[in-house]
Amino acid sequence: MRLFGLETEYGITREDLTDVDPVVESMELVRAHLTASFERRWDYAGEDPHEDARGFRVSGLAQDKEEDEFAKRDAHRPFSFHDMKSDLVLPNGARFYNDHTHPEYSTPECRTLKDLVAQDRAGERIVQRAADRRNTSLGGEHVQLYKNNTDFHGHSYGCHDNYLVPRSIPFPRLIAGLLPFLVSRQVLAGSGKVGIEAQESGFVPGRFQLSQRADFMETELSVDTMHNRPILNTRDEPHADPKKFRRLHLIIGDANMCEYATALKIGTTRVVLELIERRAAPSLELEQPVAAVKQLSRDIDLKAVVRQKNGSSLSGLEIQEQYYRAAERTLAGLDEETDWVLREWGDTLTLLAQDRRRLIGRLDWVTKLWLLETFMQEEHIGWDDPWLASLDLEYHNVHPERGLYLGLEAEGKAWRMTVEADIQRALVSGPADTRGGVRGLCVRRFPDQVKTVQWERIQFAGGLLPRTLDMGDLFEPSEVKRCLAAFEAAADPMDALNTWNGRKDSQS
């Protein structure tokens, strides 16, 4: 089953305030999306971040302590935890909520890269539309949003990519196959960053690097996400039938503005998962993966090498080349999308080695570096000038008149996988071949009868007993379309459930 999705935490600020409360601002932003009053609908009972994919349950997370501290600090606030979260399920099947200090947009599940890119771009429009409404009430363009991963004060927020994978793949095999790939993936998907940063030391200007998240990676494996951040997150929260599936939850990735970088990031990772399932991934084992993430990120010439446990050394490009060659040998001709990924992956690695300027408008770190170097030459400044951090931030601004990347795109200088019609469709409906489309349809057609929602289920109000649509095993495109048809044709959710459940009963 090929399903994937993105969760993006946006940076938020108020330009009219010197002391910004990000909790309140994030909550107010999410609520600005609404035209009616907020009603709690998200079902938190299905979420349990303490289950570890390595086969055990942790008693506590580093972030639990922080959440307890948040609760104490938030005790004075005139709203509850659920009011603060303001968790919304949108008509396109996405989730939009306040992740305490950041607004977060989670795409619906997608089966194709084009759908994913369109849904990700729809997220940019949705959060900016909420900012526009909020700014109207504030009387000025005060709230600004950034699709990036750092505030340049030692804090990082994430862009998490998620994949449905078979439970039958042993987790140790996933770890072995993925770690070297993820360490080096930043040469394709890094969004670029001015300076070096850490939670302890803050921001140090003076150089440019490939990735915004690299500085914040602290360990190889961990179930934590806010502290002790891992290259490979081990949270075992499948949002599906746990006997058949697991959800691979990766927090190492940067938030991308370039559609090409988003498609390559997700596409190559999906291809590598296919290699791992077929036992065809290259046999690589890095000596110090965490140190390697930072070392590769801080060399924009892509010449740095990292040691393997067998004593040999490889550059980030060479690691990627080994995965690409294995995929080309094993998966060429599998399907049209895989062939697109293989072709673009190979071409991109060649251009990174020979003429990376041809990747301006395709890869974020290359595009941002070009913009900053051009500006530095014109203004006669160096990498230690604080002006550059501000420009770095504005590259990621999702306001169409302020964002530097969006300005390049408007001038036709960025590669596009989508057209405007794709994004407009993604704003109002989810993919028609995944359960995200079903979720969105239920929100559109029966908003007042949806009682609670989780990724894998929807509970409807009405009647003597609660009625639930269980989507924990709803992944086959043909079945998804039949479920969509049942809910499209029904007069109310009960009719749809009777039709859908009756059909399944007759098949069993």
Helix count, DSSP H or I runs of 4 or more residues? 17
Helix proportion of residues, in percent? Answer: 40-55%
Multimerization status: single chain
**In this structure, how is the largest beta sheet organized?**
6 strands, antiparallel
What's the structural domain tally? Answer: 2
Quote the distance from N terminus to C terminus: 22 Å
**CATH class identity of the largest domain:** Alpha Beta
Strand order of the largest sheet: 5-6-7-1-9-14
Class from secondary-structure proportions: alpha+beta
What is the residue-mean pLDDT, rounded to a whole number?
92
Detail the poorly predicted runs.
none
Return the CATH architecture of the largest domain: 2-Layer Sandwich
Whole-number radius of gyration?
22 Å
| Total beta strands | 19
Shape: globular
Describe the protein's architecture and organization:
There is one protein chain. It is built from 17 helices and 19 strands. The protein has 508 residues and is of the alpha+beta class. It has 2 domains: 4-421, Creatine Kinase, Chain A, domain 2, CATH 3.30.590; 434-507, no CATH class. A 6-stranded antiparallel sheet has the order 5-6-7-1-9-14. The chain has a 3-stranded antiparallel sheet with strand order 17-18-19, with helices on one face. α5 packs across α9 (316-331) and α16 packs antiparallel against α17 (493-507).
